[in-house]
Amino acid sequence: MNVRDDSKGGTVRAGYVRPLDIRNGRIDMGHGAGGRAAAQLIEEIFLAAFDNPFLRQGNDGASLAIPQGSRLVMATDAHVISPLFFPGGDIGALSVHGTVNDVAMMGATPLWLSASFILEEGFPLADLKRIVQSMAAAAREAGVAVVTGDTKVVEQGKGDGVFISTTGVGVVPHGIDVSGANARPGDVILLSGTVGDHGVAVLSQRESLEFETTIVSDTAALNGLVADMLAVCPAIRTLRDPTRGGVATTLNEIARQSGVGMLLDEAAIPVKPEVDAACELLGLDPLYVANEGKLIAIVPAEHADAALAAMRAHPYGADAVRIGVVQEDAHHFVQMNTRFGGRRVVDWLSGEQLPRIC
Amino acid sequence: MNLGGIRKDVSIELVPEAQVGDYVIVHVGHAIGMIDPEEAERTLALFGEMSAAMAAAEPAP
Amino acid sequence: MKYIDEFRDGEVARKIADRLAIEARGDRQYSFMEFCGGHTHAISRYGVRELLPVNVRMIHGPGCPVCVLPIGRVDMAIKLALEHEVIVCTYGDTMRVPASDSLSLTKAKARGGDIRMVYSAADALTVARDNPERQVVFFAIGFETTTPPTALAILRAQREGLKNFSVLCCHVLTPSAITHILESPEVRQYGTVPIDGFIGPAHVSIVIGSGPYEHFAEEYRKPVVIAGFEPLDVMQAILMLVRQVNDGRAHVENEFTRAVDRDGNLAAQQKVSEVFELRPSFEWRGLGEVPYSALKIRPAFAEFDAERRFGLGYRPVADNKACECGAILRGVKQPTDCRIFGTVCTPENPVGSCMVSSEGACAAHYAYGRFKDIPVVTA
Lengths: 358, 61, 379
Description:
The structure holds 3 protein chains of 3 kinds. By secondary structure, chain A is an alpha+beta fold. Helices cover 28% and strands 22% of the residues of chain A. Chain A has 2 domains: 29-173, CATH 3.30.1330.10; 188-345, Alpha-Beta Complex (Phosphoribosyl-aminoimidazole Synthetase, Chain A, domain 2), CATH 3.90.650. In chain A, the strands form 3 sheets. Chain A has a 7-stranded mixed beta sheet with strand order 9-11-7-12-10-13-14. A 4-stranded mixed beta sheet of chain A has the order 1-6-4-5. In chain A, helix 3 (91-104) packs parallel to helix 4. In chain B, the strands form 2 sheets. Chain B has a two-stranded antiparallel ribbon. A two-stranded antiparallel ribbon of chain B has the order 3-4. Among the domains of chain C are: 71-174 and 264-309, Rossmann fold (3-Layer(aba) Sandwich); 325-364, no CATH class. Helices cover 37% and strands 16% of the residues of chain C. Chain C has 15 helices and 11 strands. A 5-stranded parallel beta sheet of chain C has the order 2-1-7-8-9. A 4-stranded parallel beta sheet of chain C has the order 4-3-5-6, sandwiched between helices. Chain C has a two-stranded antiparallel ribbon with strand order 10-11. In chain C, helix 1 runs parallel beside helix 11. Chain C is globular and about 65 Å long. The model of chain C is unreliable at 375-379 (pLDDT under 50). Classes of the chains: A alpha+beta, B alpha+beta, C alpha/beta. The interface between B and C is large, with 30 and 41 residues.
């Protein structure tokens, strides 16, 4: 790596490199070639934002110490969202929150992230810096470190600005077993808050839809909330965050994994009035719209009240509610009593409802 | 056009008489008709009521 | 949301259900057909069926414009994209309709066709303006509700002198389809179904008014009740139909008085007749050739007619032999009567058009009603 000399005085030392032009500069093929330009990009944008002892070592990998008595949990996520910036967040925050949450949903404490960037030739450096700083802030708030990463550049037209892939590693103490296969008939289904916020916030930016709304994405790191819940209820059966495909898809996944059915109460599911209106306008069902800062918890009935109280005591679970129960069902249907008085199946999503919003 | 707080531009070319404050029915980005508030109230009031003929025929409760 | 939430009230639903239980006579069956995609969807999504007496049956008619779109028409759009390098713009559900050679518009897009989903005809105009070196075709489907916006788009294209915009017009007309169902020579093949009355479509009636339905009531002695698209509207309309049947009446009644009158939206009708004229015949998927049931672009606007601009000929293509969409669209069979429902033909892999759109009878039943076919043991 080149070292710049910031000395005052007239002479420029040999090896001086002009700093990146963040304001007007763009990614070019050189930034992906592994040479000086690439190194400079990494140093000025990535290392500057993520700075931690692991990265300062300057190696291609990170050596991590695992606490005694723990198992490792690993999760990975790719982010291809368009638009990159939306009310309440951006692809950077999403890429940190998403993976932190995946690790947390296993009942684990997330500790370390890797971040891999595929940049499109022509992507503005100012946008990249903004995204990376957003990631750094999200990582700090969640208490995780970005310990290793990679950057590649693809030709113009072969990317969507930037794709980000993050992998997270966390630790879970022996004895905690949170899994989508654990739901049992009689268990209670809890939801941490309003649904559909993220999807609607993103759609409002989409060309040709263009509606005005005050809705912002709910993107958030939920590891703190999960820790509080596990402290009070170590017997939690399942945790999952309803991202792409919404609550409906997540519940269907769990139903299939656990070999059970479910019965929901439509009136109990909280939806912000504006989200309801936006879904009405667009012909969407809020149950299928993505969330990035909510979780579903399935807990034994006798622990439901305690778990709910713990959720409501945390800022990210203030609107937590009970939304249904797990029941026996060989066909693994997720059914719902509608507000109208009938009953219907909440089925898997067919086809693509929304283009790339996670 | 405002629906529950969501604001969106729609065309009123097909309902040129629509004024601010009127309720319209929207389809594929166009207003295609207006809602008559009096008729709406009347409709709601009639839901599930006995028909006039039946009410006349029934003995008073 | 005003004028929406009040029309979905569960307690009022209960009240209408109670009325129906009293007034539907126990000694007979009532079969009513609705032919509005919005009604099919409302009945499924809100579980209206459960609130009806067992002897009142709802039949889904051909109310979904995507479902009645024949394979041959989708083939034309695919050909435009893949062979003529046209940017094809269309509404969402049209993208998934299965066509010839195992293609659909979505699959053609994966093969390199420039096919774009738009939310309105005006968006297609924007695409044309933004891409002056490319030809842009708006694949226009839909009943009378969607036709006026297409007319407006063509009028605007003419005003702006757009040279690269045209429309592949597949707009169809509701009353013709209903007549066809009631008196088709193919009735022998599919079997006739006793329909006691019709629920008239919501959006379509806003545009065409209640007038056009009067001759069904008279000629075929079947009551028609035009209903709004909220679940309470549908239930009330069913109640009104039951009453007409009980009284031996066959009139056009309007439940949707808050938005529909006898004449309809004259401004919209005027735009449509300015730009479009009747086709002598048009093939409907599942119904065969139906006379005077569809529109084409008038000669005065010939330059915006994609069929003329690209010399496209229509080639009818037969449906998969196992597919029962035809009988289902006529209300003669239920989705569960189809051999391949839920097995080969699913929303992910639709064989016939009834499974493609969420307003289609098969898709609606699969998504919302399938659990009723199988007994479920509750904990």
